[in-house]
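Note to self: keep these together.
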Amino acid sequence: MTTPTLVIGNKCYSSWSLRGWLPLRHFGVAFTERRLPLGTEEFDREMAQLGLNRRVPVLIDGEHTVWDSLAICEYANERWLDGRGWPVDRGARARARSVCAEMHSGFAGLRRALPMDCRASGAPTPVDEAARADVARMRALIADCRSRPGVHGADGGPWLFGAFSIADCHLAPIAVRFTVYGVPLEGAVAEWVGTMWALPALAEWVAAGRAEAERVPPDILAVP
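Structure:
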């Protein structure tokens, strides 16, 4: 059986790559990692050969090529995780998918003001009104996921929906951003962010990102 390949960008900067990489690593799926530095000729050349939208991540599993982080998570859930990527409870599963979809399509102000950067100092960072609104919504979203007995956190676990899920993977870059940009946190939100930082797979990603030599201009970070 051929080992799948996951094409990613810089670990320091590519939040979307992290969302596709994290479930594979956390759940122990064997895969080959292919890192293409953002904003380079190598990136442009290799992504052009794939003939897709020139964004990472991309999963290549034999004859199947899957792009977009959410599609990769869904594929992995069916292919290797036997459904473990989503909550067992139907209501929790529906909300988890809604959380991922909102993250996937929204929070533009937060992304612009607090771009993914594992090397950021941790000092509080002033942001504009749009980003403040996004941060407030994200705090509320995380708190809601952890506060509803019987649906959210039904098994009593520390994650957004009790057991670790694709929702935690999709919000993982938020845990990084909130920490490295010194966003004030409290209660259930602070607890979840701390839980994410204690996850071995995320710690591995952040350490590798901080060790990268490349520095990517901010205008490039908005692309992958």
